[in-house]
Amino acid sequence: MTRPQVPAPGAPLRTSKPVIGLAVGRGTGPEVADVFEQVLGVLTARHPHGVAIERSPRLYHSYVSLRAEGDVARIRALTAEDADHYERFCRSRAEQGTEAVFRTAVNAQSLYLVRQRLRTVKVDLLTDAARSLLLVRDQAQGFYTGDNRHSPGEVVRTMAFSQEITEAVITYALQRARHEWPDGHLDRIVMAYKFHLLDGALDAWAAELADRLGIRIDLFQPDTVNRNLITHGLPDRTLIVAGNEWADIMHVMLLDRFGTDRQENRCTENVCLDPGMAGLVEYQTVHGSADDLAGQDRVNPVATIRAAALVAERHAGCPGAVRATESALRTLDERGVRTPDLGGRHSTTAVVDALLDSLDVPEAAGTPTDATLVGGL
Predict the structure, then answer these.
(1) Structural domains of the chain ordered from first start
(2) For the purposes of burial, counting CB atoms within 10 Å of the CB of 28, is it exposed (0-12), middle (13-18) or buried (19 or more)?
(3) Which residue numbers delimit the Isopropylmalate dehydrogenase-like domain (predicted)?
(4) To bridge 23 with a disulfide, which of 56, 188, 204, 304 should be the other Cys (CB 3.0-4.6 Å)?
(5) pLDDT of residue 259
(6) Regions of the chain short of the pLDDT cut 70
(7) Which DSSP category does 316 fall into?
């Protein structure tokens, strides 16, 4: 089985121009994309070869824009078109060596069709002063994936679980956990799935894989995981591999329990496990398309700013981009520079401008410093 590479903690020295993919949905997507391009451009300005952005030519639908298109048949057709186009875009980018794509929010049904086909997992490392939790969300199978069959007054949804995909997800999760916690302190994997509905198949796959990998795997119903979290809290170095049915709802709650951040400020990554995708990573904001804010210059840009920093550092040869960005965001918070959703009075543009004014852009990998120039004379 081909395994995608875990993102390196720093940025490698690049000898060519990195190319970053960009996919834009409706609603506030165009505004969010502009923020991403602007911030990434500033963060990578000192890159010795520059950075190119390859934008998908299609403007993908949000759920709101789809509903405005008409009846169910039309929505189904456009959903399939969006999914097919975005899958082709991601595969094309991966084939050409692109490591990362930033995507604004799009219609969930189209998105999950692509996640199923590309075998995608969502990864988020949550931390506070005393604990860390790695959440790996299985987006490649289960009740969020599958196909619909319509008849008058009824929709039948067909989905699947497979041993192959389950093994790929758990293997990647363990690999990623050992990357995040290199001292080896990881005693078990917690799986949160509705396994009681699968005739014991998921139990058997998990047990077999635990023996093969030499690690304890505890498979729990989602309500049991919740009860344990309430009763016992979150022990340090918790690795949770979860189906969408639990993780989609609980992600925002886990953010709250850790005191990490608000959903509107958070970005996450989706890693493609399909062998042909070379571990392509898709970055996104946790917040949705916010169609009601489109064109008003009011969308919160913080999650997009953070995504740009991650892309700059991990995929565009700019070490220190995340630290510099977080420092600038703290400065803005201290000054009360924030959008209305966070209780502020500033526009999207005002927040981004203030961020860029406060940003101390680090040197890019491979950029000569004064000392190396002097040494070479």
Answers:
(1) 1-120+264-377 (no CATH), 129-259 (3.40.718.10)
(2) buried
(3) 19-355
(4) 56
(5) 62
(6) 1-15, 259-260, 364-377
(7) S
Residue 36's Cβ-count burial label (10 Å; 0-12, 13-18, 19+) is buried
Confidence (pLDDT) at 376:
28
Query: Tokens 């709650």 sit at which residue?
Result: 253
Q: Give the up-direction half-sphere exposure of residue 348: CA atoms within 13 A in the CB hemisphere.
A: 24
* Residues 47-71: tens digit of each pLDDT: 888 799 999 999 999 999 999 998 9
Which 3 state secondary structure label does DSSP give 191? strand
- Both tokens of residue 94? 């991966």
Q: Tell me which residue has tokens 């996640």.
A: 115
Which token pair is 219? 């498979």
Do you know the residue count of the chain?
377
Under 8 Å between Cβ of 264 and 302? yes
Tokens coding 102 = 């930033």
Strand ranges inside the chain, DSSP E? 19-25, 52-60, 100-103, 120-127, 132-138, 147-151, 154-158, 188-192, 216-220, 238-243, 267-272, 281-285
Which position has the token pair 């520059």?
50
Token pair, residue 229, equals 């979290």
Nearest alpha-carbon partner for 173 in 120, 128, 252, 220: 120
